[in-house]
Amino acid sequence: MTRWPPADDGELLGELRGALDEAGQVPADHLSAARAAFAWRTIDDELAVAELVFDSACDPAPAGPLRSTASARLLTFRHGEVVVEIEVTEEGIAGQLSPPSAGRVTAGTATGDYDRTEIDPVGYFTLGPAPHGPVRLRATTTAFTVTTSWVCLS
Question: Are strands 145-148 and 49-55 parallel, antiparallel or unpaired?
Fold first, then answer.
């Protein structure tokens, strides 16, 4: 190109096309770095971790009667105003979100997801039995996304 700025859009597009042709293929390590950077797009969701605030396996029972049998384990997770309460039995996990909101909950281990289900409009959900080892739940609703901290349920 002999002058800057170009005389018209067509000349500018020609110059840009030539620059791209000279650049050639994107190196594999650049593509890998771009993909890794793209994975950070959900970091805010990942940081919304609901911490365990109550576990009937190690905390004193709450005041008043329990609505479940003695063989059930009750856990409560909190992140800001969002509360995830679950009841774990041999049959599976029953849980509820507060504030209530419909959506989807996924249960996972370090090796991947093992169960997922819908959350009804009042925030209730059920999942299958938890596998051995650490588990975490990820609830995604129209109002919020929250992930529980890792916990052994079985």
Answer: parallel
> Which burial class, exposed, middle or buried, applies to 62 when counting CB atoms under 10 A from its CB (0-12, 13-18, 19+)?
exposed
**Cα 4 to Cα 149: distance, rounded to the nearest angstrom:** 57
Domains in the chain (CATH in brackets) are 9-42 (no CATH), 44-152 (2.60.40)
The runs of H, that is alpha helices, within the chain are 9-23, 28-39, 43-47
pTM for this prediction: 0.67
Query: What pLDDT digit, counting tens, does each position of 121-139 carry?
Result: 999 999 999 999 999 999 9
For residue 72, what are the contacts with CB-CB under 8 A and spacing of at least 6? 56, 66, 87, 88, 89
Q: How many CB atoms lie within 10 A of CB 109?
A: 15
CB 84 within 8 A of CB 100: no
The closest of 79, 72, 114, 113 to 95, measured between CA atoms, is: 72
